[in-house]
Design a protein that fits this description.
Elements: H1 2-21, H2 41-44, E1 48-63, E2 67-82, E3 87-91, E4 96-101, E5 105-111, E6 117-123, H3 135-158, H4 161-178, E7 185-190, E8 196-199
Parallel strand pairs: 4-7
Antiparallel strand pairs: 1-2, 2-5, 2-6, 3-4, 7-8
């Protein structure tokens, strides 16, 4: 009887020692996560971004002391935004981002000479050109001056409000898409304009 009790006691002591000697799994503290708003770097890296391409057509008339001519002008231009000039303010608690957008720029306005068509050329002299010298040279100089004016015309037309509004919508859609996975609502304020909009 005594021998059984001794064996049982020894077994208990052995199990206790084994329990003490076994390596225990350390409990690591949970990491503390601080909420932070999205940063501006993700869009600054894009630099200057083309947001809209415009195709234009219009009639242009030009007149010299000898001729009056008309052309159907075809051309295009790009509207871009420099995303390196965007400024960002955020509200972590409200989960909102406010973008201050720089002015849009018209770049690369050009006359598409392959698609532009001559329409008409007439003499403005009383003799209807019968006594006009250097007809080819005078006509060529008139055409050259008209194409320079056509370039200016395309740039001016590209700045119309309807094209700028369309370009703003395009730019806002691109920027909003870049922050779509953050859970923040993005609003926009454009330089030189009181109009702002918000996108989720």
């Amino acid at each position: 009887m005594k021998l059984g009790a001794v064996v049982l006691c020894a077994a208990c002591i052995g199990l206790y020692l084994i329990f003490l000697l076994l390596p225990r799994k350390s409990v690591e503290p949970r990491p503390v996560i601080f909420a932070s708003a999205p940063t501006i770097e993700r869009i600054e890296a894009l630099g200057e971004l083309c947001v809209l391409r415009i195709r234009l057509s219009d009639m242009l008339e030009a007149e010299s002391p000898d001729y009056r001519a008309a052309w159907l002008i075809m051309g295009d231009a790009l509207i871009s935004i420099d995303l390196r000039q965007v400024s960002l303010s955020s509200d972590v608690h409200a989960k909102t981002l406010r973008m201050q957008m720089p002015p849009l720029q018209v770049i690369q306005p050009r006359v598409d000479h392959e698609r532009t068509r001559w329409w008409d050329t007439r003499s403005v002299r009383w003799h209807n050109g019968w006594f006009t010298s250097d007809k080819t040279g005078k006509s060529a100089r008139l055409t050259q001056a008209a194409m320079i004016e056509a370039q200016r015309m395309i740039e001016a037309v590209s700045r119309r409000s309807e094209f700028m509004d369309e370009a703003k919508i395009s730019a806002e859609a691109i920027v909003s898409a870049m922050y779509s996975g953050t859970g923040y609502t993005v609003s926009f304020q454009w330089s030189g304009s009181q109009k702002s909009s918000a996108r989720n």
